[in-house]
Amino acid sequence: MRVEITLTVNGDPYSVHVEPNRTLLDVLRDDLGLTGTNRGCNQGDCGACTVLVDGKAMNACLVLAPDADGAQITTIEGLATGGRLHPIQQAFIDEGAVQCGYCTPGMIMTAAALLAAHPDPTEEQIRNGIEGNLCRCTGYESIVRAVRAAGRKP
Amino acid sequence: MRRRWERGKVFRSVLPHFEYVRPRSVKDAIRILARYRGEAALLAGGTDLVVRMKMDRAAPRAIVDIKRLAPLGGPVKPSGRSAIAIPPLTTLAEIASSALLKRRLPVLPATALLMASPQVRNRATVGGNLANAAPSADMAPPLMALGARVRIHTRGGVKTIPLEQFFTGPGETVLGVTGILGTITVPLLPRGARASYQAYTVREAMDLSIASAAVRVQKKAGKVVSACIVLGAVAPTPLRVPEAEEALTGTRGTAGDIDAAAEAASRASMPITDVRATEGYRRDIVRVVVRRALSEVLS
Ligand SMILES: Cc1cc2nc3c(=O)[nH]c(=O)nc-3n(C[C@H](O)[C@H](O)[C@H](O)COP(=O)(O)OP(=O)(O)OC[C@H]3O[C@@H](n4cnc5c(N)ncnc54)[C@H](O)[C@@H]3O)c2cc1C
Ligand code: FES
Ligand code: FES
């Protein structure tokens, strides 16, 4: 039986009728067309689906859609404000921290949550902070550099 | 239904159908569990349940979301003067950042930080970790070693039991089909007592333990007067090892005493061989983690 849920995604209110067995990731990608959030492992291991739920980084693939009812969601599509990239997005570009790009949206959302909690994180905080995000391309060095660079900016 | 093969297991990218229920009270939740006769599952953070459903290891007809039930949530706070009460819905992230726990029982925040990833810790609850009853569940050994007691809500009423009596087998607890795990109450460490949890994993992040050990040791006038040693991932349930505790009690806790206790713990463990490690390797690792934990608290 479908249930109605209301979500605020990137500041916009949505009301969606969903089967309870769908995840927040399914709703974002398939119902709202926000395909920036990637589906990797679909079971909590890779972090490609990371979004902010009420300001906290979470794996959208593990959140049942009805469980997200009433939540404020931020996805990669909502990070830029007024046509300007978020500092962490700009830092990923400047440091060349994107290769194939599959991990990038999740990595950036995780980093954005980390920077909100620790505006100038240490290398250790960064490495621990992204432990739930797998990247098969970069070897992580450029990603750590990008987070550090974004941290140093006010 | 789309399926793909994952670690040799059936993997569903679409979950089976179920009814999603939000109970009005703990009593109501118990009634719903009873009505479904074992075919309903409680949902806390879902980081075990949703994954198990995707792995085709669980297919409940109803999911009973307990996250908004006030008696199971709320902040970590003192319980009387000598204990701390941890609501079952407390997330691992909240355990890791609780100022009260960091000050009074720092082994618990340290353990939470070892687990999973920031994203998972933001959802995963301590109650779910215990109720899921994986032999490798990381919160169980330190809570058991600290002498935690757990409240159990049943059809017959509420009772409190030692966590030590909670686990009955892999994935099995005294909760049965209709029980709900309530507040976890953890005594503060008595004077002269210290605690440590050491887990051995192959990877540093996002990995289940091969073996782990939690210890609580109290010293008076240079001698060990009490010890509690609990092993994880090397038996069907978290395993208290009285043999090792006895080996240590009454000693001065020297390197030799620690080795003897570690040896006793290794002998008492009942590990299995699986994809992560063989039985013999696990037994060796038990010795390592017990030695590390005891060395930390006795140094
Ligand atoms: C990527 C990843 C990494 C992980 N790493 C670790 C790790 O390092 N160490 C570790 O120990 N675990 C780990 N886990 C497992 C899991 O995250 C934890 O066990 C978590 O604490 C489970 O809590 P939850 O609230 O998400 O449980 P849920 O999935 O909501 O529930 C788990 C089970 O307990 C039952 N339940 C939940 N709450 C109650 C209650 N109050 N009363 C009765 N029954 C209840 C549910 O019905 C279900 O059967 C990991 C999981 C993932 C996906
Ligand atoms: S897709 Fe969600 S963690 Fe991999
Ligand atoms: S850039 Fe390819 S997975 Fe990270």
Walk me through the structure.
The complex is a heterodimer of chains A (154) and B (299). Chain A is α+β, with helices and mostly antiparallel strands. Chain A has helices at residues 24-31, 87-94, 104-117, 123-129, 141-152; strands at 3-9, 12-18, 50-53, 56-59, 72-74. The mean pLDDT of chain A is 96. Chain A is 32% helix and 16% strand. Chain A has a 5-stranded mixed beta sheet with strand order 2-1-5-3-4, with helices on both faces. Chain A has 2 domains: 3-78, Beta-grasp domain (Ubiquitin-like (UB roll)), CATH 3.10.20; 87-151, [2Fe-2S]-binding domain (DNA polymerase, domain 1), CATH 1.10.150.120. Chain A contains 5 helices and 5 strands. In chain A, helix 2 (87-94) crosses helix 5. Chain B has 299 residues and is α+β, with helices and mostly antiparallel strands. Chain B folds into 3 domains: 2-69, Uridine Diphospho-n-acetylenolpyruvylglucosamine Reductase, domain 2; 71-187, Uridine Diphospho-n-acetylenolpyruvylglucosamine Reductase, domain 3 (2-Layer Sandwich), CATH 3.30.465.10; 193-298, CO dehydrogenase flavoprotein, C-terminal domain (Enolase-like, domain 1, 2-Layer Sandwich), CATH 3.30.390.50. In chain B, 31% of the residues lie in helices and 27% in strands. Chain B is built from 11 helices and 16 strands. Chain B has helices spanning 26-35, 49-54, 92-97, 99-104, 107-114, 118-121, 126-132, 140-145, 242-248, 255-268, 279-298, and strands at residues 3-6, 9-12, 19-21, 40-43, 62-65, 77-79, 83-86, 149-154, 157-162, 167-169, 172-173, 180-187, 193-200, 211-220, 223-232, 239-240. A 5-stranded antiparallel beta sheet of chain B has the order 6-7-12-8-9. In chain B, strand 6 and strand 7 form a beta hairpin. In chain B, helix 9 (242-248) packs antiparallel against helix 10 and helix 10 runs antiparallel to helix 11. Residues 1-8 of chain B have low confidence and may be disordered. At the A-B interface, strand 4 and helix 3 of A face helix 2 and helix 6 of B. One FE2/S2 (inorganic) cluster binds at residues 98-104, 135-138 of chain A.
